[in-house]
Amino acid sequence: MSSRRSRSRQQSGNSSAITDDQITDLVSKLQQLIPEIRNRRSDKVSASKVLQETCNYIRNLHREVDDLSDRLSELLANTDADSAQAAIIRSLLM
């Protein structure tokens, strides 16, 4: 983070402002959560790369959820509406 932004935060007196150490800690936690980064040999990954990979990972998760939802909807459409299987599928879609 630039020193100008740090000074700006300090001067504003905003007690809820996040510190550089907190940002570093949060980026480190994200790095451990994202498989693409976690599986790399190198510990040194830029914060921008971590954030970029995090966004990609979340986008992929959204796509997976959408695909699974579509598949469950198709399965439900081809299942007897009163069956136990249909009830389970409906509960998964809610």
UniProtKB/TrEMBL annotation:
Q: Is the keyword Nucleus assigned to this protein?
A: yes
Gene Ontology annotations of biological process type:
regulation of DNA-templated transcription; regulation of growth
Q: Which UniProt keywords apply?
A: Growth regulation, Nucleus, Transcription, Transcription regulation
Q: Where is this region: Disordered?
A: 1-20
Membrane-crossing residue ranges in chain numbering: none
- Decide whether keyword Cytoplasm is in the record: no
Instruction: Show the coiled coil region(s).
Output: none
The record's SUPFAM superfamilies line, in alphabetical order, gives: HLH, helix-loop-helix DNA-binding domain
Where is it located?
Nucleus
Check the record and name the Pfam families matching this protein. bHLH_ILI (PF23174)
Principal localization?
Answer: nucleus
**CDD domains from the xrefs?**
bHLH_AtPRE_like
Q: Which domain of life is it from?
A: Eukaryota
PROSITE patterns attached to this UniProt entry: BHLH (PS50888)
Q: What residues does the BHLH domain cover?
A: 7-61
- Offer a single GO CC term for the protein: nucleus
Which GO MF terms does the UniProt record name?
A: protein dimerization activity
Alphabetized Gene3D superfamilies for the sequence: Helix-loop-helix DNA-binding domain
Protein name according to UniProt: BHLH domain-containing protein
